[in-house]
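> forwarded from #structure-qc
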């Protein structure tokens, strides 16, 4: 009888072990699927006000004109502009490392707007190779997903010669020479899609 009891305990354990293993693996998979890269972003050297504004703006995307359902999106545009105008160069450089397309675009755009920033060509080249995250741009009921470089070159800088031209009064000069624009466009049009 004694051996039988021992054998029963051993057979229970041999059945229970695989079940608990599978259950444990399932729990790990479920919990890890909810992980976001933004949780581990390094916010050192970023002020609390910039960080808080970024966390508000990150899920909004970019808008032109009226937003979805006829709502005014001016508040969100002002938030993005406030971040660009009030963040330091180092804070904007930190934002282009954030794992979100809207936040990256805010960082890139803020640096390109800065007249004192002198590495604009390198920055745009970096954006051309930055393809992991997209910018969501909406105008009214229409919305499109753009690569960050596509947003910067076609919608912000407005220098792409392969799309219909913008009215001259809408084009702002951000300090790029014609030869620099040509270099950017060549790299942009030859990028891997």
């Amino acid at each position: 009888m004694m051996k039988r009891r021992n054998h029963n305990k051993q057979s229970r354990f041999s059945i229970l072990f695989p079940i608990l293993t599978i259950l444990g693996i399932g729990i790990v998979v479920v919990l890890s699927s909810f992980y976001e890269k933004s949780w581990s972003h390094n916010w050192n050297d970023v002020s609390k006000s910039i960080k808080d504004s970024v966390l508000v703006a990150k899920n909004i995307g970019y808008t032109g004109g009226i937003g979805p359902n006829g709502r005014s999106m001016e508040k969100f545009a002002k938030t993005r502009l406030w971040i660009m105008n009030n963040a330091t160069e180092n804070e904007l450089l930190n934002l282009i490392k954030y794992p979100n397309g809207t936040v990256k675009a805010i960082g890139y755009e803020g640096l390109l707007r800065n007249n004192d920033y002198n590495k604009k060509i390198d920055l745009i080249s970096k954006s051309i190779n930055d393809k992991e995250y997209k910018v969501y741009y909406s105008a009214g009921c229409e919305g499109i997903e753009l690569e960050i470089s596509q947003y910067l070159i076609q919608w912000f800088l407005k220098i792409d010669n392969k799309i219909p031209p913008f009215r001259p009064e809408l084009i702002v000069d951000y300090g790029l020479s014609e030869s620099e624009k040509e270099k950017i466009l060549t790299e942009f049009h030859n990028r891997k899609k």
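QC bot note: The two ends are 72 Å apart (CA to CA). Strands lie at 62-63, 134-139, 142-147.
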